[in-house]
Amino acid sequence: GTWKLLTGTLIEKGDTTITDYTKGKEFIKIINNDHFSFLGHDLSKGKNADSMFTCGGGGYQLKDSSYTERLEYCNDRQWEGNDFTFTITINNDTLLQKGIEKIDSHGVNRMNIEKYVRLK
Q1: Residues linked to residue 3 through DSSP beta bridges, in sequence order
Q2: Does the model's pTM come out above 0.85?
């Protein structure tokens, strides 16, 4: 289905950044039988200092609560070709995704916690 990101929390090197995706930006994740994709953008159409656009996708595997994304496409190309494993929980219409994003060659090593609500 389609999920709308409400909040994203990144914990990296002891610093925590929480992003509220209900104010000034939107981000969705679409998951079908064997692929996922994500799209995000600011609501000012790129005209403000907070402008952003992000997209990506690829295949995934789900076994119990272990969800692994194989990022095959991404506007930030250094992320392509990497696998990221998360623990997911679904409670009614809320999905919580939590896991480590790590790319040694680019110095990425952070906890990512995302809270989504299912779109009807």
Answers
A1: 29, 118
A2: yes
- 50, pLDDT greater than 80: no
What is the 3-state secondary structure of 25-55?
EEEEEEECCCEEEEEEEECCCCCCCCCCEEE
Q: What SS3 class is residue 93?
A: coil
What's the rounded Cα separation, in Å, for the pair 86 and 70? 12
Q: How crowded is residue 26: how many other Cβ atoms within 10 Å of its Cβ?
A: 14
Based on the number of CB atoms within 10 Å of its own CB, is 102 exposed (0-12), middle (13-18) or buried (19 or more)?
A: middle
**CA of residue 84 relative to chain centroid, distance:** 10
